[in-house]
Every structure is written in C-alpha cells, then in structure tokens.
Amino acid sequence: MKNTIIAIAILVQTAASAQLTDSIKRLVPVKGGLNFRDVGGYKTKDGKEVVWGKVYRSAGIDKLTDADVALLDKKKIHTVVDFRGVAEAKAAPDRLPQNTDYTLSPAGSDSIPNAMQMVKLLKEGNFLEKFYGSDGVKYSGDRFRPLFVKLMTADKKEAVMYHCTGGRDRTGMATALFLYILNVPEETIEADYVASNVYLKKMNNMMAPLAKMSGLTEAQVQEQMALKPELIRSFFGGIKTQYGSIENFLQQEMGIGSKEITLLRKKYTK
Known about the structure:
This protein is an alpha/beta fold and about 270 residues long. It has helices at about 1-20, 25, 65-75, 85-90, 115-125, 125-130, 135-155, 170-180, 185-195, 195-200, 205-215, 220-225, 230-245, 245-255, 260-270, and strands spanning about 35-40, 55-60, 75-80, 100-105, 160-165.
C-alpha cells in the first residue's frame, strides 16, 4: 500500500507539474474557497492558447468572504453554473456578486452516494470507477448542457464560472469536455484534472471519518479517492463506447456540432 501511495504521488506530481508551475497566475486568491482557478493559458494542438480570465472552475463557494465576492465582481464573473444537487446546494448556498446569472444544474447529483453508501463502495474498492464510468456518461448531457449554453452565449466582456462541492469530479469532467472542444492535448487535460489532488490537500481531513466508518486506513481511503488520469480516460472511453465518439456525444446530447465548436474555439482561444 505504501508503494502504491508513493506511486500515485509521483504520478500526480509529474502529470500536474506543468499545470502547477503557473499556479500563482492560475489560482484565484479567495480566502473562503479552494481549487478556484482560471482554465486559461493552455496550449492547443494547433498552436493557439486558451484565453485567460474568461472561464473559471472551483470547489464550493458558499464560504466566500465579502472581499472574495468583490474579487469575483472585479473579474466580471457574473455567470455561474452549479453542478451540485438540489439539497446539496440548499444546504450551502453560493455567495455571489449582485445580479449574477446563477444556474443550478443538478442532473445526477441528487443520487450521489451518501456517507453510508460511500463507505460500502470504498469497501468494495470501486467508488470512483462507477462515478466516472456508467454514471458519469449517463448524466453528462443534462448536467453539462447548461454550462455550454452559457459559454456560447456569454458576453465577451464577461466571465463564466462553474463548480460543485469539491471542484474535482463533476467540475473535472466539465473542464475535460471544454478543453477537448478547444483542441487541447489530452495530456494537458489530464494534468489540469489531477491538479485538484494538490489544490484540495486542505480537504484531506475528510479521510479520517471515512476511514473510521469503513474500517480502512486513511492511506487506503486516500488511494481510492485520489484523482488519476485513468479516471478521466474512463469517462471519455465510456462516452466513445456509448456514442461512437466524443463528437457524436456533443452533437446528440449538447447540441454542439461543427458550427458550435468553431464558435467556442473562436471565442475562447487566440
């Protein structure tokens, strides 16, 4: 187990190193939130770059300070899509600038395992595999469609932000799809994805109660909960298996065809 944890740490550090080197520019310095970062700056396969300051991803933003909310306003983040479930969002409402266009897109999130179900899945050793496999594909169309509508229709002077509770799984899948559409290499997509392991280190205190409830060690829980490139590959693989290609999925479930892809690339790369 110790060797496994070390191997994961090395994998995360290697895959995310390029992404983390610009963390000073990428991370939004909010005091009341974690994993709040700019999705810009990534190079595309055709030599362009994802624009900075237009698209952001985050973990929960219910504890933002007044200064944090003012920073969002300054960054023109006035469009927010929330992937949490209805009860999840009600228990911890977002703190947002006035007149923010807020959309709750809870598809599938109300069926996320509760603590006891999580413990059962952890014992079985397949907690995240199902979330990214069959369940991830099943809910992705309804869950992420509102985000892409906002991305396509947002004023060019404004910014869009999306989030869930941890800003890693649902938010990670949304980011992977967005960067894929913009023609960003898969290794870069994976680096952005696994970087949440580093940005969310402060949330690792959740491992202790899960370990106690499950009878597993904290190291075992940590290993199962760690984000690995294989998970986002499983998500993409599940889409390809069901739809034939990611492009077919985008067209059928999101209404994103060649015209919309061209629009998104023109708007969010330069």
